[in-house]
Task: structure prediction
Amino acid sequence: MNGIELKNVSYKYPLTDFFALKDINYTFEKGKFYGIIGPNSGGKTSLCNLVRGLIPHFYQGDLSGDVLIEGKDVRNWDSNLLSTKIGYIFQNPFTQISGVKDTVLEEIALGLENLGIEKNEMIERIIEVVKLLKIEDLIKKNPNNLSGGQRQRVAFASIIAMNNDILVIDEPTSQLDPESTSDVFEIIDMLKEQGKTIILVEHKVDLIAEYSDEVLVMNNGQIVDSGTPMEVFSNKALLELDVAMPQVALLGHDMNRLDKPFDYITITKSQAKEQIMKRMGCVNGRN
Ligand SMILES: Nc1ncnc2c1ncn2[C@@H]1O[C@H](COP(=O)(O)OP(=O)(O)OP(=O)(O)O)[C@@H](O)[C@H]1O
Result:
């Protein structure tokens, strides 16, 4: 089922003379995990601003084409109602925390209070997300004293408690260490399992290859390629555009250049291992 449809969408921010988004045509289906990648200034964050209604409700500028959220034009959505449908997780966990609450518990409750959620339901939702994100030991702590990884978990908890159908997440791991980064991907994967639609901007393409259902490549304000991770990372034209690829996909492209191709362009470590084992004469890539 369609969640967000973009038809011939172009957009210029106010006081600029270039299009940050150019002739975008794409449909985000409900319940899928979308990874958005591409070089700097390609338009990834602008696409996020568009799909969560910040364009045109906050950024006025010059928008043309159709942006349909659950079939209704974004211009006709009430922006408060839209924020209950589409949650947003920032790049920087330090700006996601309100800074005005003394405990993690109060921090998670803040968004729910703003939604006017009744007290018993609020408590139930908080207990559920605290367990889900394994942050029971943090609830009495001051959010301002947490590490980056802990803050990002609390940020996720606050958003998950709101129970949005769609989550737009912009580079959530850019300030995290590798362990917290894999935790974040596991949380996002779990949200997908719960039926949420995930739209994630991320430079860590190895993880995008592993987890996404669909990958969109943005460059110069346009979607220059889209498809399954396998389809996108097999496209050698993307190498010319300075699009980051998983290391094992680069290995696959190198093997093609050397005229010693693998059976396919490998995009995950396990696929590369299987192909290398096969090359070494191990039956079916095993043992
Ligand atoms: N608020 C704004 N006002 C004016 N121009 C903007 C604004 N935000 C982004 N832009 C411009 O729009 C273009 C696309 O930027 P955007 O942030 O969407 O790209 P990005 O792919 O997310 O980049 P990065 O990977 O560097 O975060 C850039 O040229 C940028 O300078």
